[in-house]
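User: Second chain of the day. Same drill as before.
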Amino acid sequence: MAELAARSGLTVATIKFYLREGLLQPGRRTSVNQAVYDASHLERLRLIRALAKVAGLPLDTIREVVQVVSGQSSILDAMAVTQDALVGERGDEDSEDVEPAAAETLAHVIEARGWRYQPGSPAHSAAIRAVAELQAEDLTMLVDRLDDYARAADAVGRIDVQAVAGADSLDATIRGVVLGSILRRPLLDALVLLSQQHHANVLDQEDEHA
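Assistant: Same format as last time:
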């Protein structure tokens, strides 16, 4: 266990806590107080660490993700549970009922992209709320370009899935989903800001030469 702690970056006490909570599978016993751990244990600890330290998820939610990964779930099912955990629980009211105009606008965009998705999922509800907020602020110039944003999101989503598809285990795949989703956001936001600077400069130069 000392070696497992050193390689995972976690303390022995933390690993023992995960064992007691059933998040980490027991090692193979070699004596009363000795057990052997392998690469699967290290992968599981890395997944738990990503869920707890990076994503900041509570223990019960981490347990839900780990249970799905430990079972006979498909990658799609495991990713769905992980996405729901990262976005958060749905509210008491369905976003489609509360924001029907935004839901309809988003539905047209999703249909145009041909996306196969989970209606009513936390991600779907979050997208409806985001469109509703744009509409409430009368940001027509952004709402009118929603399909362009969806096209850009489609490219990012494809890159994300392709990046984790070659992982050696489901634990590694889901860890990639968690870390990629959390750590990619600030990078992508910063790249968008840099792009805005570039295109604003281009527009300004065009105005000067007009």
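The two ends are 70 Å apart (CA to CA).

User: Great, on to the next one.
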